[in-house]
Amino acid sequence: MLIRCGYDIRFETQNKTAIMALLSLHPSRHLDLRTPQRLLADPDVPLYHFEDGFGNVATRLTIPAGGVTLSCDFVIEDSGLVDVPAPDGPHTPVEELPDAVMPFLLGSRYCETDRLMAFAWGNFAHYTTAKARVDAIVDFVHNHIEFGYHHARSDMTAWHAFQEQRGVCRDFAHLAVTLCRCMNIPARYCTGYLGDIGVPPVDAPMDFSAWFDVYIDGNWYTRDARHNQPRIGRILMARGRDATDVALTTAFGPTNLVRFDVHTDEVQSAGEKSY
Fold it and tell me: Where do the Transglutaminase-like domain residues begin and end (predicted)?
């Protein structure tokens, strides 16, 4: 399966402003590219790419006074298979987990494990396997939160989403991640492209998506509390503890986002346009 992905994003600012962006594919998907992935800036300002502490490709640039447009368009090959299900094995005790996954058990900026610990143990402890606990958590979050783009706000945490029962895909992911961590299941936040492939199209502008991974029986497995079903064509961009680590852009000064267009569509050839 071939998928054309990309974006066209414009920022405006009165003064030159440094920003950091995580708008590139995760290195784990680079071998799947069928056309080059080039992040373009207009005007043509210098771009510096580096690998952050979570293995994501980050980009640094300085927006000139007036603004900048960032764009990208590429074709990637995908297996066309749905998310791989986790095995229903025993829950791995914390003392047996590898060191590398321990940060994904801790609370973080948007995932307040201390506030949700009692709720999690009171509602999910009776499930005997990690997969059963994750299934129950995903079902709960999917049914507990009302999705709506008008609910989006930058300071919404897992606790807020739990209390207010509304949010966007990142809030579904944050709450599910938090509850998994409360139950001693390592969980990490993910962001990337997820088009309406294999499902009825949604009557809303395309956006980037958020989901999460859980560590079960020695491997990471993808889960999605927003959609609560295995999906086709999930294209990873970045992952970390929460949205702080994988913010699409972080501006170090006042900026205005004036255009935000994303496309993710199945195509038959690398030369076929999707928009």
Answer: 161-227
- Assess if residue 45 is contained within a domain: yes
Distance CA 16, CA 68 (A): 10
Judge contact between 6 and 73, C-beta under 8 A.
yes
Could you read off the pLDDT of 80-122 as tens digits, one per residue?
A: 999 999 999 788 999 999 999 999 999 999 999 999 999 999 9
Question: Nearest to residue 29, comparing CAs of 73, 82, 78?
Answer: 78
Point out which residues pair with 178 in neighbouring strands: none
- The number of folded domains in the chain is 2
19-73 residue pLDDT tens? 999 999 999 999 999 999 999 999 999 999 999 999 999 999 999 999 999 999 9
Residues 23 and 150 in one domain: no
Residues 225 and 116 in one domain: yes
Q: Are 145 and 175 a contacting pair, CB within 8 Å? A: yes
Q: Does 205 map to a domain?
A: yes
The answer to whether the CB of 237 falls within 8 A of the CB of 24 is yes
Range of the domain at 30: 2-80+248-267
Residue 46 belongs to domain with CATH number: 2.60.40.2250
Residues 227 and 101 in one domain: yes
Looking at residue 198, the DSSP 8-state letter turns out to be S
- 106 Cα distance to chain centroid: 18
232/107 Cα distance (integer angstroms): 30
**Distances from the Cα of 161 to the Cαs of 66, 116, 165, 176, in angstroms?**
36, 11, 5, 10
